[in-house]
Amino acid sequence: MRSNPFALVGSQSVLGSGAAGVPAFPVHIMQRPSFVTILTLSTMTLAAGVLNSAAQVVEAQTAEALLQRMEATYAGARSYSDTIFVRFRNPDGAEGARAECRFWFARPGLFRLDGESRRAEDAPPKREVMWSDGESARSWATASAVTLRGKIQLAGSKMFGTYAYHIPTLLERSYGGPRRLHELSVPVLGEEESFEGVNCYRIRGSWQGDPYEIWIGKDDFLVRKITASYSGYAMEEIHREIKLNQDIPKVVFQFAPENEAGTRRRR
Fold it and tell me: What is the pLDDT of residue 230?
């Protein structure tokens, strides 16, 4: 009996020919991996796949958690106001429509969305306003009469654009349709980025098949920027002058178009 179980057997039928004084690896090991080797490699491959899947799940959960936190921040706001700057690019890369929109909101029931847009740089501006003083809701647009509405409803209103939908419907669910900004499909958390001096989370996803990306402030969970593409038309939506839970004079919600129809909104 050999005292060393790892001692090499001096048989050429078992050993390959090695360099002088250096025994070669057994031929059967070189030609055919052992069951233990196969099992180990299989286990490592499976483990790598599980870890990769787990990382994707954690990433998705994190992105979804951030979107839910964003939605909760707006849903819990007492009041909100901002200025929205929007620009579109046509599929050929040329500058498209532009819009600037002021927005004020206060609970319960106070609302005003006041936007001016141009389809092209040399096109005449069009102003659109929808507002509620808490008792009645109305809308008005350039060269149109005031329309009395049963309630504030952005989905299906044929006013403004998607840029006027995203934030108001986070503040009040009833303003929108079945899907809102925090319900992006397959959200993915990207690298953090500073936007206009605010450290932001970046989340990519899709909305009814259209690619979206959102910049959310890390400290306050408020949206600073949204980009999207609609059949090749690229949109950039920027939110500035954001004020959360600050008093808004009620006169803001008592819009009178007959006093302003002939004037351009101040920028």
Answer: 93
